[in-house]
Structure formats: structure tokens, C-alpha cells
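Quick board copy: two proteins, each given as sequence then C-alpha cells.
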Amino acid sequence: MLTDNRKRALVLSGGGGRGAYHVGALRFLEEHEWVPDVVVGTSIGAVNGAALASGHNARSLWSLWQRLQTRDVQKARLNPLDGNFLLDTSPLRETLEREGWVDFKRINSTEAAAHLRVTATEVNTGRLDVFGNSPDVYPSKIRKEPLGLDHIIASCSIPIVYPATQLHETLYWDGATVANTPLGPAIDAGAEEIVVVIMTPWGDQSKSPSDPPHNLLSAASTTLEWALLASFQADLKMFRRVNELVRLELENARLRATNALLRRQLGGDETYLVDRDQDGVPDILQEKYRELPEPVIVAPNEVIPVEQIIRYTREGHEKLYKMGYENAREAWRAAGKIVEGEGP
């Protein structure tokens, strides 16, 4: 049921055949009673996000992933040198419809299981568009409209690898082309708690270097991989700067409120400003500012081979599913949260 509750947001990155990693992380979150109200998906994250908005959970989504093979997602082109892409994604379109991954009737109704946001990049302008099944809480440029299969396929259209997708007379590439794990749409939707699942090591987490690319496809994939990681790092840096600005604004509001109260008291005015949380800032002022807690970032400790972006196998899915679960446990613990079954 689509409700006004927007507190929890799950941001799912792109990564193609590595999408089972999302599901493992989701299983851990569900075991800890953390279920998203908002889902922001890019590329394969858009596929998994649409499945969650359709009513799937970690268990049923994992059942779909266990059956998913490369032939269900793409097929070789007869002449890959004729045109600007290498693989045909028409099988993915058929699979999502036939196997029950998505239910757009539910997604676009009040029965949707989550507020869904899907991103795609305009080919001609490089602009990131955000499509959603509900309006945002805060001013934004979201395109609120009935979502369909073209929105999902557009978000999955990796440049060079897959063809661009036409939507509203505009050609789109993968949303990850410019923003692999966009935090902005989650914040605009009204989220206060954000969990990001990204499939590339970030910061100091990486324990092993990636192998040098050995062919044209892996070279292109590696280039895209690090570009996408840079986009997330920039997003996170901006998030932290905005939070710092909010902290400064709150401190300024606290000082102004204290000054105003002192002036009233000196003048014999007993006016009382409500401060329910007793943090020194009257509620009427604090409502203007909102500091968000640091996102919980679930990421692998080692580089996942880029070839798995276009490879879908049962063995690969199982490995990534387990990895996503364990990395979610590590991230949850690192965020100071209680992990079930572990001591304090």
C-alpha cells in the first residue's frame, strides 16, 4: 500500500548481472525489520526496484534471480559492427513481462508497495531524468507519470553495450551513465533514513585491485565502472556538505532563539516558544531545517569482475547474493546498529 510514510529509502545502483547482490543485501535488511518506503533504482537497480514496488520481497525476488540466465536478458546481434551497440536487450523486455518481475498496474496505483524512482540519461543532452510513481515531498524536477516497461529498459541501456531506448520521443541511455547511485531523488522523495547498495568498492574498503582489462568490452566496462563510482563519491560529498550547512543553520537558529528569549525576558514578556525535543531550538524554527543521518552504504570489499555486468549465471548469482548479505551485515554493524544474533 502506497502511504504518506517516506522515512526509509533504498538506493540501488547499476551493475547488470551483478544485481543478485542487491537481493542479498535486501534479505539482511528485511531480517532486521528494515523495509523501504522509497526505492530509487538505476539500471539493474531499476529492475529490482520495480520488482519491490510490485510487491516482491527478498525471498520472491531471489527466486526470480535464481532462474535468470544470460539468454533471458540479451542476445548477440547478427552484425555488431552495424550500429552503435553490441547486444540486443529484447529478451529482457520479454522476461520481465513473462516471468512476473513487474506489475505496472500495481506500481501506478495506491496499492504500490513503495514510492518508486527510476533514472535514465538523455542521449542528446546528458541530463539525468528521474521518473516516479508519486510526487516528491520537496521541490524537484521529477517526472511523475505512469511508469512502464520502457522506463525500466531505458534505465538499463548501457552505452555501447545495449541500444538506447526511446521514451517520449527522446532517446535514453542507462541512468548510471551520469549518476549510478543518486541520493538526491531519495531526499527529494522525503526520506530520512537512506541505505545505499553499490556494487563497487569505495573509499578504503577495497582489499584487492581489479585485473587490467583484457578486451574492448572489459576496457569499456572498467572505464564506466570507475566513472560511476566517482559520481557516487561526488553525490556523497555534496550530501555531507549540505548536512554541514544544515548544522550551521541550526546553530544560527539556536543563537537567534536564545537572543530573542533573553530580550523578551528583559522586557518582562513571558512568551514561551515550544521546544518539544528540548534541543534549544524552538520547533517553529527547527521545522525549516533538516539534517539527515549518514547513509548506510553496502559495498563489496573487493572488485567484482566487470564481465559479470553482462553475464547472468546461477553460480554467479549465488556468490553475489551471499556477498551482498555479508556486506550488508558489515555495513549495519559499522553504522552502530544492532545485528541480530550478535552480542552488544
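And the next:
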Amino acid sequence: MEELIQGIIKEIGEDPSREGLVRTPHRVKESYQFLTSGYTADLNKIVNDAIFEEATTGMVLVRDIEMYSLCEHHLLPFFGRAHVAYIPNKKIIGISKIPRIVDVFARRLQVQERLTDQIAEALIEVLEPLGVGVIIKAKHLCMMMRGVEKQNSELFTSSLHGVFKTDPTTRSEFLDLIRTGSH
């Protein structure tokens, strides 16, 4: 990968032997390894026995989870916040696992629409809940820095399953809880 990055540096008209760029290929390689670490993450190891039997039936919501990803079309970052909720069906998950699940899928080359669905599907797989709701709001540098250059644009995506899709009261509660105190 370092040779490829060095080639990119040459292609854009820079000198890869310039002092400030000599170690850039190595740093870029390390950055991409971290930013795409979701490909090697194991969902079962992330969850790591943090599923607990519980009779609760109320909504569980983790709001404002910071997330960073790379647009698969331009390899530019997009970033924002994920809101993830579920209605338990006799099982709950340790709350720190929800942001970790978000990271598993965010740390891949992505489109926001797929990312939103993957987070929801992972929770369905590990919990078999009565319903799951995921909403992501993000800013895409591929729209802000190039192309249409719209700095204030945000993309909202949602993935609603089970009672979040079929029960208007559950869906409204989810949306109201997200709005409460939101930035």
C-alpha cells in the first residue's frame, strides 16, 4: 500500500522524497488500516457474551453515537451521529456494545444507507428484539469539499424494523426521544 500511496503523491505533482512527505505513505497506510478495521472485526467477539436475560419491555435507546466512515465512491470521510434503539424480547445487550456495533460497520468503505441497515440487522441478529430503529445524520465531505460544495447539507437515513415500523406509537416515541435535547 505504501508504494501505491507514493505513486498517488507523484501523480498529483508532488515529490514523495520531500521532507514532509517521506513518511506519509506509511502514515496513510496506518490510517486506512484503522479506518477500515470493520472488515476484520468479529461481531460475536464485539458482543462478547454481553447479552443478558431480562424481562423489561421498554425501549432502549443510545442516542448521539459519534460515527466516522469513508464514502466508498470518493474515499472521503463522512461523519455524524447514530441513534440506535430496540425493544427487548427477553434479552438486552450491554449498552457499550451498541456504539461498538456502529463502529464495526462504520469502519468500512460505505454508503450511509447500507451502514444504517447493517447496524439494525446486526442488532436483530444478536438480540431477536421486538423491533429496532436506527437513524443516522451525517455530513459528507464528498458533497462539502467537491462536487456540489454544499457545506451545510446533511443526510438522514433510517432503518426501522418490527414494532418501530408497524406501531406508530413506538415510532413516535423513538423520534421524540431523539429530538429531546438534540443539537
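Board note added afterward: The CA atoms of residues 139 and 154 lie 5 Å apart.
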